[in-house]
Design brief:
Main location: cytoplasm
Subunit structure: Forms homodimer and may homooligomerize and heterooligomerize to form the phragmoplastin complex. Binds to PHIP1.
CATH class of the largest domain: Mainly Alpha
Shape: elongated
Strand order of the largest sheet: 4-3-5-2-6-1-7-8-9
Number of strands: 9
Subcellular location: Cytoplasm, Cytoskeleton, Phragmoplast
Protein name: Dynamin-type G domain-containing protein
Number of domains: 2
Strand content: 5-15%
Radius of gyration: 44 Å
Oligomer: single chain
Mean pLDDT: 85
CATH topology of the largest domain: Four Helix Bundle (Hemerythrin (Met), subunit A)
Largest sheet: 9 strands, mixed
CATH superfamily of the largest domain: Dynamin, middle domain
Number of helices: 22
Structural class: alpha/beta
Low-confidence stretches: 502-514
Keywords: Cell cycle, Cell division, Cytoplasm, Cytoskeleton, GTP-binding, Hydrolase, Microtubule, Motor protein, Nucleotide-binding
Helix content: 55-70%
CATH architecture of the largest domain: Up-down Bundle
Length: 613
């Protein structure tokens, strides 16, 4: 079985690695939170700082009146075999502190950096690691002291803000609560015990610490509390004798202070029978032993959480893509695979698997018929214009029976109007296809990491769509021109075979100079041409969509990137690498995920090796 120090030391190591990688918060439970730690809770001036310094054996925390701890201090103690003691801050990783007075100043400066030189608080923690042969492996979190009133310079919500911050730490199931209470205060009014009782009603996570035992009124003692009679916890109470203010002013060494503390309990008539279970040294060992026990109990759930997170990180790496290969052939293959992924999404839009393709049908079902109905045939086939066209077509010799040249000119002029809606349909479908290209690129997950390739694909696809548009435009114009080039003779033969209505007898003989007969004849010409144009309109309303789909939609599905594939195949390796130039933010994200993945795998292996060997 692994030693206690090796197991807790491993947890400290993993927690520090998590901190460096920023894996200590966010949604769900992080590995940092899954590993047990000790949160130090107490009212202001309860002696929290003195307890921490006694455990560490160093004088390193800022002191003063009122609220001194204004940001959480995550303190990781690392036991070393030998060598000099030193400290490191996460925010200054390249700087090693051997002067603990400088550590105190750095904590104050770093606190002021976030909160300013005010009495406000911040929930952004300061991370400090201390390496020493005189400490036990332990992670302690020093939290701002609970208070009952706001003082000048603090917001009215400071009392609630501090309690909410402290509660956010101690309510976590893996948090061990170190509740600090001064012995010269009624235990029933202890802020630390009150909060601990709320978040840990069973008391299985709470350790009670009584400070300032030497400052109690003469003739009184705290044996009822320390022996668990006044307020029982699942774990034994521990009494602490802090350094006096005179000792602090004289810079009395912490080792000397520990010795004085031991002597106090051993010689005390009130606490002598409890001396072996009192003092800061005993408290540190007790917490370390309990921490080791909790870690062992949590190992199965920690391993399970690690395995789940490893699976999630691997899935995230697969989603954003693995690192790009350096080999030119592999890069070409990757580009082609990414293009195919885009092509699949684009076809899904056209075929109905994704929205957007239905807009093409909307062009044919609504836009084209509406445009055809708006064509100015009424003006073109008015009596005045029919007369003008027919007269001009006859030239110097009027027609004898039917004005065939007039008919043809009127039909040609009418058919010409169809070019506008035909070309508009081509452009409308072209616009939809371009929009689908844009959406498809945005929706292709594999492409998101390569902005340069996205631009290359968009350019190539739009160039192809432009070629398809030009061919489609030529085709629909040909369809319109075909209707002009050869008229449907049977239509007019049927009109000629139909009986004509005889003009009413009004005493005026029919003749070329009769205005009434002339208007009727012109109206009949206009009506005949209008009927023929309606037939042509119905034909084009069916054939234009066929041509557009054949020339644009069908070709977009079949060969949108065909030219691009040929160009890519001829590119040099350097150009291929440039096409796979990734978004720097995505590269950084992948790097961080890879580091976290490496951390979790190493943590799993090391926990397995240390815990069960």
């Amino acid at each position: 079985m692994a030693t206690m120090e090796s197991l807790i030391g491993l947890v400290n190591k993993i927690q520090r690695a998590c901190t460096v990688l920023g894996d200590h918060g966010g949604q769900g439970m992080s590995l940092w939170e899954a590993l047990p730690s000790v949160s130090v809770v107490g009212g202001q001036s309860s002696g929290k700082s003195s307890v921490l310094e006694s455990i560490v054996g160093r004088d390193f925390l800022p002191r003063g009146s009122g609220i001194v701890t204004r940001r959480p201090l995550v303190l990781q103690l690392h036991k070393t075999q030998s060598g000099a003691e030193y400290a490191e801050f996460l925010h200054a990783p390249k700087r090693r502190f051997t002067d603990f007075a400088a550590v105190r100043k750095e904590i104050s400066d770093e606190t002021d950096r976030i909160t300013g030189k005010t009495k406000q608080i911040s929930n952004i923690p300061i991370h400090l690691s201390i390496y020493s042969p005189n400490v036990v492996n332990l992670t302690l979190i020093d939290l701002p002291g609970l208070t009952k009133v706001a003082v000048e310079g603090q917001s009215d919500s400071i009392v609630e803000d501090i309690e909410n911050m402290v509660r956010s730490y101690v309510e976590k199931p893996n948090c061990i609560i170190l509740a600090i209470t001064p012995a010269n205060q009624d235990i029933a009014t202890s802020d630390a015990i009150k909060l601990a009782r709320e978040v840990d009603p069973s008391g299985e996570r709470t350790f009670g610490v009584l400070t300032k035992l030497d400052l109690m009124d003469k003739g009184t003692n705290a044996t009822e509390v320390l022996e668990g009679r006044a307020y029982r916890l699942q774990h034994p109470w521990v009494g602490i004798v802090n350094r006096s203010q005179a000792d602090i002013n004289k810079n009395v060494d912490m080792i000397v202070a520990r010795r004085k503390e031991r002597e106090y309990f051993e010689t005390s008539p009130d606490y002598g029978h409890l001396a072996s279970k009192m003092g800061s040294e005993y408290l540190a060992k007790l917490l370390s032993q309990h921490l080791e026990l909790v870690i062992r109990q949590r190992i199965p759930s920690i391993i399970s959480m690690i395995n789940k997170t490893i699976d999630e990180l691997n899935a995230e790496l697969d989603r954003i893509g693995r690192p790009v290969a350096a080999d030119g052939g592999a890069q070409l293959y990757m580009i082609l695979e990414l293009c195919r992924a885009f092509d699949r999404v684009f076809k899904e839009h056209l075929d109905g698997g994704r929205p957007g393709g239905d807009r093409i049908y909307g062009v044919f079902d609504h836009q084209l018929p509406a445009a055809l109905k708006k064509l100015p045939f009424d003006r073109h086939l008015s009596l005045k214009n029919v007369q003008k066209v027919v007269t001009e077509a006859d030239g110097y010799q009027p027609h004898l029976i039917a004005p065939e040249q007039g008919y043809r000119r009127l039909i040609d002029g009418s058919i010409t109007y169809f070019k506008g809606p035909a070309e508009a349909s081509v452009d409308a479908v072209h616009f939809v296809l371009k929009e689908l290209v844009r959406k498809s690129i945005a929706e292709t997950e594999e492409l998101k990491r390569f902005p340069s390739l996205q631009n290359d694909i968009a350019t190539a696809a739009n160039e192809a769509l432009e070629r398809f548009r030009e061919e489609s435009c030529k085709t629909v114009v040909r369809l319109v021109e075909m209707e002009s080039s050869y008229l449907t003779v049977d239509f007019f033969r049927k009109l000629h075979a139909a009986p004509e209505k005889k003009p009413e007898k009004n005493g005026n003989p029919p003749g070329p100079n009769n205005d009434h007969f002339h208007d009727t004849s012109l109206a009949r010409i206009g009506s005949n041409v209008s009927a023929y144009i309606a037939m042509v309109s119905d034909t084009l309303k069916n054939t234009i969509p066929k041509a557009v789909v054949y020339c644009q939609v069908r070709e977009a599905k079949r060969s949108l990137l065909t030219h691009f594939y040929a160009q890519v195949g001829r590119k040099e390796k350097e150009r291929l690498s440039a096409m796979l130039d990734e978004d720097p933010q995505l590269m950084e994200k992948r790097t961080q995920i890879a580091k976290r993945l490496e951390l979790y795998k190493a943590a799993r292996d090391e926990i397995d090796a240390v815990a069960w060997k």
